[in-house]
Design brief:
Layout (H helix, E strand, L loop, with lengths): L24 H6 L7 E4 L7 E9 L8 H10 L3 H4 L2 E7 L4 H14 L1 H5 L3 E5 L20 H19 L4 E7 L3 E3 L3 H10 L7 E3 L8 E4 L3 H10 L6 H11 L6 E2 L5 E3 L31 E5 L20 E3 L7 E10 L1 E8 L12 E12 L2 E12 L4 E5 L7 E8 L7 E10 L2
Parallel strand pairs: 2-3, 2-5, 3-4, 7-9
Antiparallel strand pairs: 1-4, 5-8, 6-10, 7-8, 11-13, 12-19, 13-18, 14-17, 14-19, 15-16, 15-18
Helix pairs in contact: 6-8
Length: about 425
Amino acid sequence: VTGRRKVIIPENPFWKKPENLNLSVLESAWGPLPIKYQYLVGSPSSKMRFMSIGISSIYKDREEPLLVTVESIFSHCSPEELKKIVLVIYLANDNSELNVEIAEEIKVKFSEHIYEKRLLVIQSSTANYPPLWNSKEGQEDNSEDIVYTAKQNVDYAYLVNFCTNLSHYYLMLEDDIVCASNFVSIIQSYLHDTDGHWSTIAFSTLGSIGKLYHNADLTKLARFLLMFYRNMPVNHLFELFHKSQAQESLITFRPSLFQHIGRVSSFHEFETAVNDPEFEEDLGDSGDFLSASCFTSIPIVLNYPPENVCPPGKGVFWGKEVEANSFFTIVFGNPIIAQKIRIYTGSAEYAKDILYDGHVEEGRLKVHSEEGQTCLIFKKIGTFKDGRFELEDKRRSNDIECLRIQVTAPQTQWLRIRKINIWLKK
């Protein structure tokens, strides 16, 4: 028809070959966020580890616990466990020069772990952060606490985002904690025995400390934290996250594998006593250095002989077929006056391998017997309770030459002695 406008039918875009063949809707939606990071220490490994450990750290103008935390992480891992982890420290101070200074301290102290590519220290400019305050004047949510909480959420989000694809699992820690021995193997063993869906497992009862995530969930978690970063504290967001992933209740491993140290919790400017009552590892002073020999009538398990834990040993004794009248005797090289004694059995991983019924005796008149050295005269000084023996008496003044752990009833569980700590009269 004359005058009719010509209609142009475009090509069907669904049949047109895409120019970007690498485009992935899934990656675009859930891949790592394009955040700029700067490496201060270390470089990433090309090998994916079993677990990455993330710490976001802010200098609190007090005795800095970060180095203690890093030392605790590495010193509580066996050589095999160290091969399975990578520790990422995100220095979240606004002052870049301060971050560099702290990174240098870490570099000097932990050079071996940096060389093995199991320690990274990073930062990101706060210029890359979303607004931490409301731009509208007069808003009530511009208080110092609100801004501080918002920054904490963004700090965590940036840390989590960086750790994507470094490992199969991600463990969240803080910069003021200590660890239980062999915590990596304990976590690995627990995961092996855990069936069914989970989003978050807590290996501590304190806030964000000890939260474990799948690598596949890290980008979701980073986005989730950024989505609500001004709405609520990070601990509440962590709780809402696992619920959003169809995990209604938090799965908590006991006893706790991590404990807070000091009186200033991370991201808090006020002093408060924050401790995890579920943590059962031994903290603080481990007693005096003693010369001693140890003997036992309990059959030994594998390579866990008495000398492992015998003072000043730092290892573990493990025995089986524990019967009534079984004993574990400590014979001192020279007579001592013990003012404080602590003997701990069991461990976080083997919580049932404690001494259920037994007591401790002090001995005098050292002699040789078929089982080795012992004492002729023994006197009971206290009993075990929940696998532990503790005694402290500064008035004690008598020399002793032996200590004996005496089993008073048979038990089906093996016996694991992890600590024998003795403090002498000065």
